[in-house]
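so the lab meeting is tmrw and i was supposed to have these ready like two days ago... anyway. pasting both below. for each one the top line is the aa sequence and the line under it is the structure tokens. i havent really looked at them closely yet so no promises
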Amino acid sequence: MKIIRVTATPLNVPLHINLVGVDRQSSLSSCYVEVETDTGIAGHGFTAITEEDVVAKLGRPSAMSALLPDGSHSITYSYSRLQMSAASYLPVVSALAGETNASVTLYNFTFDAGHRLVDWNSTLKKTTDKMGLLNQQTRKSQ
């Protein structure tokens, strides 16, 4: 049995990171490979996106989970932003109409026991706190 054909297709997984003052496009690379023999046997596979690839692109994570019994674990990147309204800086006005807007973005990457990426997700949480006596209605959260 001899290999008669090998086809390698490069793949990129796009990663759009929109953080506090940073809007960054990146990607993580992988490769799809097909192999065919002269006897008609064919096989295929993927190269993996590894934890090392993710950390090299995004830097040191904010948090890392403990290893689960199956050897898998996750890393999390956390970015937060706090913005106060202009009224919050004026002593008398802030007591009446102060407001704070906050946002937190979390990116979570899950890896198997071999440190290969198996899943990822992102979450954005925004809140507005009305601190003044005249705007104490409710806390708005998204």
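ok protien two:
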Amino acid sequence: MQTRIQSAVAAALCRRTPKIRCYNHFMRIKIAPVLFALALFAFAACSADSAQTKKFTTADLQKLRWIEGTWRGTGEVDKPFFERYRFESDSVLAVDGFEDETLAKVTDTTRFELKDGEFGGGSEGARYVATSLDERAIEFGPAVKVKNGFRWELESKDVWKATIILPASGDKPARQRVYKMERWPKP
């Protein structure tokens, strides 16, 4: 036998979900937690899938050899920037940033390392991990202390583009910044 409180709660639930007919208000109260648990489980499963990174091997990293060399970057910057991409080993890619086009002074180095099937790197506590890699591109997603991702995409043997993928935040919509990377010095 239902109490007045159970009847009132069941009736309120039925009014909020008009597509479900509630012939037995007491049964509706039992179904609500089950539906809530199923929705929570589905959300958790989707979140777990999106957080997983693909497992890579040193053979996969060989597909990225096109990026080796010294590059001049232009785009949404005041002046060009200069970077050198070099493999220190089969599992470590180092990216050196230079002060200017003379390449005389390295201002910073970021290392991307393959460890336990995960290819990632960053600096100052921030970390990105590769989410996809093929012969023409690699994409990195945020892992620690960052929200954006980025993509390096081959256009020709002497040109590729770096795309910073910025998520929506506050009143700003999701957006991208694209930089053209040209081999330096030009062949």
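from a quick look at the 2nd one: The longest strand covers residues 106-115. DSSP finds three helices and ten strands in the chain. will dig more after coffe
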